[in-house]
Amino acid sequence: MDVTIGTFNLNNLFSRFNFQAEIQQIQPVGPDGELTSKYVFDDPEKVRIRTYKGKLVKGKDSGDQDLIAKRIQAMDLDVLAVQEVEDIDTLRYFAAQHLGHAYEFLSLIEGNDPRLIDLALLSKFPLGAVTSWQHAVHPEAPGERVFSRDLLEVDVLDPRDTDRRLLTLFNNHLKSKFVEHGVDPEEGKAAADARRHRQAESIARIVAARTRPDGRFIVLGDMNDSPDAPTLAPLATSPELSLTEALAHPQQTREPKADNPPPPASGAWTHRFKAAGQNAQYELFDQIWLSQSLTSQHKSSHIDRRTRHGGDGSDHDPAWVVLDF
């Protein structure tokens, strides 16, 4: 049985609703069977507008939602780990309205990010235990939660025997490289790198404690750095885990757009960033690390290549692997 498992940063999948309120009375339906009503939300005690740093949190553009949905449908994966989803209701609505209920099993736990972007899972296979590690701390900073968002651990069950666990996924979204305006660029980069390194150390420690050396598990998600970056060394070099990054030589769904300089010939990239007046940087932010036992079951790796430099509905390209069970 071939099983396809992937990761995709959906880039701010917020709902089309930006308010929360209590409606005391629903207006009656007219004789034509239609309901047209106007409600005024003017009581601050009953209305909460979602904002972040003084700006209204708006829903993801409908055209961009269509684009990411088409990419997900084209991949047709069995299990997809996603990042940057507002909440479980947004995920349910997206799965129903844009994916045609193709994914019966959904999981999302609210995490630590003040921007309301959470980790989630869409699966055609039944799911078992779901664990959030959002409260984990690192010894170097015991007074703060180490994960900016979360480390979401999910057991995927075997569809042929739901009493049997097929494998365990550890979904991630590590500290970004973005430095806030007004912060010294070098200091901001150093702080972000240090946070990401502590996160990688915490992932390695937690995964090692939760799995066996011969276990079937995958560490995946948006790592916000290259696989060989010093910040991710705790994952790449952990002797307890012996992980293998599976996207070193992926098959691309299409040729990348021309650029100067051109993107990596290996195709091992999922994120493109171009600062003003600078060359574009191509990096494999979205990664799939296989446990030792799954490495022998690995058949192929794939990346759905964007058609525009800015991306198709997301600034990340989704990636996935095919495993032989």
TrEMBL record:
Domain (Endonuclease/exonuclease/phosphatase): residue spans on this chain: 61-316
Pfam families, sorted: Exo_endo_phos
Renumbered residue ranges of the record's region Disordered: 246-267
Superkingdom as given in the UniProt entry: Bacteria
Single GO MF annotation: endonuclease activity
Keywords recorded for this protein, A-Z: Endonuclease, Hydrolase, Nuclease
InterPro entries xref list: Endo/exonu/phosph_ase_sf (IPR036691), Endo/exonuclease/phosphatase (IPR005135)
The protein's name: Endonuclease/exonuclease/phosphatase family protein
Species annotation: Streptomyces sirii
